[in-house]
Predict the 3D structure of the following.
Amino acid sequence: MNLYETLAADIESQVARGVLLEGEKLPSVRQTSQRRGLSVSTVLRAYSLLESKGVIESRPQSGHFVRARPRAKARTPGAPAVPPLVLSSEVDVSRLVLSTLRTIRSEGAVPLGSPYPDPAPFPWPRISQYANAIARRSQHWSVIDDLPPGNPQLIRQIARRHMENGLAVDPSEIIVTVGATEAINLCLQAVARPGDTIAVESPTFYAMLHAIERMGMRALEVPTDPRTGISIEGLRSILAQQKVTACMVMPNFQNPLGFQMPDERKRELVQLLAEHDIPAIENDVYSELYYGDTHPTALKSFDHKGLVLYCSSFSKSLTANYRIGWALPGRYTAQVEKLKFLNTLTTASLPQLAIADYLQNDGYDRHLRKVRKGYAERARMMAAAVLRFFPAGTRVSEPQGGYVLWVELPEGVDAMKLYALALERKITVGPGHMFSARGSYTNCIRLNFSYPWSKEIEDALRMLGRLAAHQ
Ligand SMILES: Cc1ncc(COP(=O)(O)O)c(C=O)c1O
């Protein structure tokens, strides 16, 4: 390649990777020539080549800008206007989810299908040091010390963290659990009975569906906008027609869509549910992973009736290995505490103490700032790569936090087939089938972008695009 072609190819690849954003101004011809040590005429030739390819445009008196491409957007799943009768469904997704998650562990596979973040940047060695020190100094602790609601030192740290993030919490409401999974299960069990109907977002994270499945309840999938969250209008019309016992939502950086529900809509949702005296189970595991300047508001902060049962964990922000989560169950605290006792007696002490020591003495905020920055960059890079490599008609979500991208493939592509073909090539994806009890989203996949960008990931995306196009 000539020098000008090499420069043009470099810039084009930065655009494709989302490093240079649509509408962003390119460095001037003179700056580029100085920085790259190229002649002005070489840079001009490169820029005009990119113009002719439609990658950039020149604006009189202003310079060169990345051109806006016709954008593919994630679609609102289901019509926002809710049909007269929305049917609830039995839930049977856990077998599929378990078998899929097992394959994600397979040796050497590209972990695009993993629900967990890349562990590499997480402060595991620091937490282990705290655990070792605790084990050395206190060999005689007993589970009795940490009976529900949990270890007092950890409970204090969780309350402090909530306060720093703008949610004033009474420490006596905090119940430590085995991950957010146990918190979600116990909260649902506290508010509903087998056979009850539970409203969920659509698509929804499968842990919500599992909790419903475990209790023999029914799921009612409410249309959910990929930017603003569960349709409040839809839910209102459903509540006018049928009995719903509880509602399960993930207002901040929902898995799989990645949206952050605007505060005004959170307030409206809490109000609507309060009018019907319906408890809401809020899953907030991604709240520390925001890309904006401030921590998102919890649904719970709009609740004045104790009807929001808040669930979270350290699995996404610190470590999933210790399985430490918690619930703030509002007016259901006593029931959830009793269920916790009946379910697992206590949560393991050592992980509780090690995390409490880490939170008290170490650099949690520094660690979080680093991972948030990486995720925000990779969200753009992965979306750009998917739109580049996947067949025309593919749409992607625009996550506001977290580390998953929702990809809607053209109608007719079967995500389970794509999953199987990709697995043969040691690439994993999360098939859309896992996110609905009704068997929706069969042409969607969820991709994890927490791992550092690499040639391996780019090649895997190119291969997935080819496999999808072939279908
Ligand atoms: C949205 C969401 N909720 C809950 C969980 C489960 O969290 P934990 O590992 O703390 O049980 C996960 C983990 O994948 C998740 O992504």
Observations:
- The first strand starts at residue 56 and ends at 59.
- Residues 364-389 form the longest helix (26 residues).
